[in-house]
Amino acid sequence: MKLATETPWMPAPEYGRGLRGLGVNLVVRDVPAALKFQSEVLEAEIIHSDRDFAALRGFGGEWMLHADHTYSDHPLKGSLSGDLARGIGAELRLYGRDPDQAEAKARELGYEVLAGALDKPHGLREAYIMDQDGYLWVPGVPLG
Fold it and tell me: What digits encode the pLDDT tens for the residues 109-129?
């Protein structure tokens, strides 16, 4: 069930037809709350947002957020209730976002930092940060 009453920034079919490559869609409890993490910690550009949906862009990638209430007829509906963790085992890697800056911002805003920024043997400096819905984000940059 949609809650937004505004005219969409573009018709959903038009947006859908333009998507290419790897797509990431996160189902979130509250789109405005999720946007705080996305824009302030990850420094994502908000392309569009309303109470139902948001489209974001950053560091060469694009991704979407959909509110739980938009999944009323979706096969995942049952897994969205209660305190069930979301995204277990998935790492959402954002290449190009400075992990030290993201970690500092996450701590400042009260998000959980699972592992602070460290140089890794695979040639990246990374941090592991949980968002408000339990998704694990890994901002990283190549080591010098």
Answer: 999 999 999 999 889 999 999
Question: What pTM did the predictor assign?
Answer: 0.81
d(CA 142, CA 126): 9
CA–CA distance, 52 with 100 (Å, rounded to integer): 31
> 4 near 69, Cβ under 8 Å?
no
Q: Are 97 and 60 in contact (CB under 8 A)?
A: no
CATH no. of 12-142: 3.10.180.10
Q: What is the pLDDT of residues 8-22, one digit of tens each?
A: 777 767 776 776 666
Domain ranges of the chain: 12-142
